[in-house]
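::Encoded backbone::
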Amino acid sequence: MKKYKLIIFEGIDGSGKTTQAKYFAKRLNAFYLREPNFFRKEILKEIHPLTELFLFLADRNEVYSRIKNVLNKKNVILDRSFPSTLAYQLIGRNLKKIISFDDYVKIDFLSRQKIKPDLVIIFDVPVHVALLRLKKKTKFEEKKFLIKIKKAYLNLARKFNWHVVDGTKDKEEIRKNVSLILK
């Protein structure tokens, strides 16, 4: 685990990412954070997609300020980060029409205070499975939208060489698969 100081767990809601992120944070005695953290209520409101993007970036800057303070002392497990914004806002909400991929990546890198993750793990599940797992749904959990987001995550994983884990397996098998990645 020493070679992975900052690990991001990603996937659509209901993919099991939070369950696994919390488990590994505890098991590895890592600092656990999630996004969004500071502007959660505002982001869940019906607002313009560009406003939503900027709220995510502002939230991310605050989260990464915390990460920067602990990264030299402890490993960090982050439940969501910039891959979510790429999938949900840039691709899912069609913000590529307003802001280019390259421009977004530059702005996001600044919001992360130029901190790069050592590892990104995407938890992949069929959309119908994710929806069945969710107790409470937000504007981000509509079936048609999630199909688009799932596809975006898998394309981004190929583009950036992120790891993809089958989130349909039982929790123990998923943990074994994540443990193999961490070795």
In short: The helical segments are 17-27, 40-44, 49-70, 82-92, 101-111, 127-133, 143-160, 171-182. Residues 49-70 form the longest helix (22 residues).
